[in-house]
Specification:
By secondary structure, the chain is an all-alpha fold. It has one domain (2-150). The protein has eight helices and no strands. Bound molecules: fe (ii) ion.
Amino acid sequence: MKDIKERIFGIIRSISRPEAEAVISYLSKSNYFTRGCWSHHKERGGLARHSLEVYEHMLSHAAGFPSDSIAVIALFHDLGKTVHRSEYGPGHGHRSVAILDELGFPLTREERTAIGHHHGFFKGDCPIRSFLKSADCTSARNWSEARHRGHGHHSMHSRP
Ligand SMILES: [Fe+2]
């Protein structure tokens, strides 16, 4: 996990945006590096691992999108999972945007739409949001498939 933390901090610092250090300090204090996601990457540290996977997937299929936007939306799209809806309202994507706003981290309009609406249905046209959504789903699907294989293997060997 230390490795993942250093890599994520390195990426955030490399895009040199104002308030990057405020976000880094938030990530350190929150459960970003310890908690899992809900329906995939459920293990301890799953949220950070998933965020890095989404980043790497997006970067390797970058299709002309700015690399700083890719870093921001991939690493921060699930920030909303680090807080509760009772404080920040429903929709973890919207909560992610609210946290970044609170920290004073500047987002472009596209980044705001991509993060805020990465989950569920969205009517508007925002290519980088679709890109994030597909990378997010790929990471979740890879996790489920790997776990499925792991379980199959395990049950085969654990049977008497
Ligand atoms: Fe995600």
